[in-house]
Amino acid sequence: MVLWTRLALRPLEPGAGLAPRELTVHWELAADEAMTRIVARGSERTGPALSHSVHAMPRGLRPGAEYFYRFTAGGQRSPVGRTRTMPAAGALSQKLDFAVVCCQNYEQGHYAAYGHVVRDAPDLVLHLGDYIYEYGINDDAIRRHNSAQIHKLDEYRARYALYHTDRQLQAAHAVAPWLCTWDDHEVENDYAGVTSLDADADPAVFLARRTAAYRAYYENMPLPPTAAPRGSEVALHAGRSWGGLAELHVLDQRQYRSPKTCMKDFPEGEPPSLLNCDALYAQERTMLGAAQERWLDRRLAGSRATWNLFVQGTMVSAVDEQPGPSRRYSNDNWGTYRAARDRLVASLERSRTGNPVILTGDVHAFVAGHVTRDAEDAQSPAIAPEFVVSSVSSGTRPQRLMDQWLKDNANLRFARGDTRGYLSCRLSSRELVVDLVGMNDVRDPASDRHLVKRFTVEAGSPALLG
Fold this sequence. Notes:
- This protein is α+β, with helices and mostly antiparallel strands.
- The chain has helices at residues 112-120, 153-164, 167-175, 203-220, 290-302, 338-350, 399-408; strands at 3-6, 23-30, 38-46, 53-56, 66-73, 76-77, 81-84, 95-101, 124-127, 178-180, 238-242, 246-250, 307-311, 356-360, 366-372, 382-388, 412-416, 421-428, 431-439, 449-458.
- Helices cover 18% and strands 26% of the residues.
- Helix 5 packs parallel to helix 6.
């Protein structure tokens, strides 16, 4: 369990209106929401080096238990938050209710989805990336960013502060524990490892930007102290066990990925043609990096859980985005990291991983389909279902494009690009039920929701029912 907070008097100002010195933050953990049955308490020192953030880790707690917490500092007390510990390793946990979210561009809509997540009160929230956007101000936006495009540490800190002023986002953090990974916009659109999307960018300047962005991400997210930045790197990938019911594999598919290739062959914004670019097949190309691949392979080999949930950013299913007989794939997804995708599929098959389910964000659309053994053969055996969650608020895709995806990709079962929202999931030993929940109008912070589609996956089969 990680208890996170950040001190701020004037959060949008440099230094958040606090004196540049260390302060003490006290925390309490209770078995009841009224905070009358305190089970643990402690204090943490924090200061400007961590932007006055706190990442406290209570010890000696009961597994599979609900807890409530609050912070006190400088005579001020926080609201009470709700969290829980995971069931003990191997415990026969009966269920896991969780929400899946991603892509919350502040300018492009309100966070009504989080209001509904709060009312759902799940056991866990999974965030798949694009927590902030690095872009500057759009004068025609629904809400406005607080600066031009960001590059430096104080600018990234201020952008997180802006996003955290949203009361519905605050409430979602306070209703359940979160497991988080990042995608690209926490740093820069479509970056890959230490390489900027801008081919003319100075590598040293971009690495400094990434280092600042990674530090701000750690400071502003409920990550354990073991994830604190070390130089330009953050140990983000992690494994968590929900008793014997589910293993959660939190992947980092940005920090270590190989640079994009074949970019010079196609106009900007168009996906490369996999069939005409041999470099995309190179065995050394990686999405996760060699060390993370080995770590994941060991986890899969050792997993005895009924379900294995993959918490990650970009689509593993290879999606042909070129209408007609030719094939072209997004250069930002696993489809153009073909060797890495093949190694992941081989690892799943070799370890006989129990009921793998891929959870994905990034594309601002609801998509459901199958990861097949052969990326270019949609009729090859289905290895795992993949559920892509639409954005909380970021701009959608034209439905005509989603219809073309369905026409040209037999491994896809559903694609809806004109609706934003989240996934509401209910997991038991028998089945996974996934509700694709859409918002009626992201321009309305109190927007109602509707069920876009429901799918069920039964234990023992990757088939999508619904």
